[in-house]
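Deviation from plan, reported transparently: pyridoxine-5'-phosphate complex.
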Amino acid sequence: MLRLGVNIDHVATVRNARGGAYPDPVRAALLAESAGADGITAHLREDRRHIMDNDIDGLMAALKTPLNFEMAATDEMQAIALRHKPHAVCIVPEKREEKTTEGGLEVAREENRLAHFIAPLRDAGCRVSIFIGADQKQIEAAHRIGAPVIELHTGAYCDFHAEGKFAERDEELARLTEMAQFAHSLGLEVHAGHGLTYDTVQPIAALPEVMELNIGHFLMGESLFVGLESAIKEMRHLMDDARSD
Ligand code: PXP
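Because the crystal trials were delayed, the predicted structure below was used instead.
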């Protein structure tokens, strides 16, 4: 079955706009679980612009489904992950000035450091995934450093769709398709995410190698209009529908 991980970062973005206690990302996570999410994803950024340290404490205490803890490959984040030992840790690149995680991790460029970085996380029982673009060189490097999972960055595919650049979108989808197959052939578990919407989710959900999608920003926006539960149920329905075809 294709799992849906719901990213609740932007509940915290709205909360932090006023600096108070609401809306509470933990409450959103519990609602997401009851609406059919198979897991919750949260990204603790270095600048704490959305999720904050006590949100991770709250999620670890309250969740019934696995937490996928997204983080940069820094010593500070490694120590936090080792303290909490979440089910999954997803290593992402992070730039202070970016609005969101713009690209995949350059694993090949810092293979040695990353191999040493993820080893203690794996030893602590966390399922480590590496967020990367649809690039064979990066997938091979992720495999060499001993990561059991990769998450393919679907942002470019979604951006091309939104901009009406359908030829480029289809080329990127072809790359994602080929690289999902390639990663699977190496024995890696394949996840995907970033920027997915009702309009873009189905071709990705249809890829048989993909085991999990992580989706946040669109769901939070849509929930303003239809509620979080309905937004998640519709996404789940579209995923299941694409998978059954
Ligand atoms: N997967 C990863 C690794 C991400 O960094 C993000 C964004 O935080 C997502 C999935 C979800 O992306 P979006 O919020 O655009 O759905």
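Residues 3-244 form a domain with the TIM Barrel fold (CATH 3.20.20.70). We consider this an acceptable substitute for the interim report.
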